[in-house]
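Anyone have tokens for Condensation domain-containing protein? Sequence:
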Amino acid sequence: MAAPVSRTILGGAEMTDRVVVPFEGPGAGVGELTWGQRKVWTLMEQAGTSMSMGGAVPVTDGRTVRDLASELRFFLCRYASMRARIRPGADGGLVQEVSGSGVAALGILDAADDGDPDLVARDLADRWEATPFDHAREWPIRMAAVRSRGAVTHVVVTISHVATDGGGIAVMLGELGERDPATGEAKNPASAMGPLELAALQRTPSVRRQSDFSLRHWERLLRSAGPRRFGPHVDRGEPRYRRGVFTSRALHLASKAVAARVGSSTSSVLLAAYAVAVARLTGITPALIQVVIGNRFRPGLADVSHPLSVNGLLMVDVADASFDAVVDRTQRASALCSKYAYYDPAGLEELRARIDRERGEAVETSCLFNDRRIGVGIEPPDPAVPPRDELEAVRAESALHWGEPFPRYLDKLMVQVGTALDTVELEFHVDTHHVSADEVTALMRDVEALVVGAAFDPALPTGVRPMPAA
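Reply: yep, here.
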């Protein structure tokens, strides 16, 4: 590792210093983007950001600048997507160039002796998140050590979404933690499925057939769905694009009890409750929801770093049924949704445009759900539930917090389940011209009330009536 050199600009932020980190790795070459990368690139262009992932993490185990430089080198050497730069190709389309070797920089940012290093780290993370990557010239990972009085207090990491997704980050952190403590070598060989290899595989006839099967599933649902998910556009004079987090330990406990009784996962319980609550709010049934599918359950893709997540399409009838029945329906619909969430995104856009033309109306798919937890499986058959008075007391602790409004959002409502282990965090993004702030607040409370009620009543009805025939 080279010695520190003069200060530099990294990701638009001025560093106190830097360490040059050389790297080398397999998978070099030039080729097309994968389906996941192409989907993310389109979303990034629409949003005007790199949709970056990461943040500031306290360093409490005595790691040094040298240690963090070793970690950055590990990421760059092992994961070809961290060495990929994207630029226009000869035909005007996009290509990615994966480098077999090169150098990167670990930034070093010193807090003032009387300053707050936590604030310095959070400010850097915020600035990097707000600064788009120059994908043609910049490696898609930025990393810096924040120091106070010479000791490392935080590491700040920002990765462009076109290089990874939530599942990819979990792979990277898991394999980082499994390194040999003496040599720093990885426990297992690296995946041979780099982004160029996967893009080539996705051009083969067998994988193209999988895409065709998936698009036929989308076509069946899109042709049978009504055109709207929410009400008409209404400017209520409030900030349009908003986000917030609803936190509920009661929802965590109740969802586990319902899942254990029904024989499902808590993810299916939360998705079912979301579908019912939206139907109660809008009166529109059946529910049609885009669900983010990680796709790492597919053969050969478990350990890749580059983005695989795409949206699957789920339809579930929530009317005239018990909530337990809707959870069962949701679990079965989720299996189909996952199976058919592997497709060429250009083919999906062509399909949707054709269906809209033939119907003479656009079919909205602007209601989304994403469970960011990893490895959520079927609950064991132990339907124990805390006493009602205890659960109601826990429910009183639930809280909803609004974040700062943001300048642009591409859909109307999205709910993401956070990664907390002992509570449920529902992070929501909303276009208040279609779902008001009061309505989304009521919707979060309704999800909680529904699941808590169902924990004590297996026959609890959804209260949703079928829509009248057109």
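The mean pLDDT is 94.
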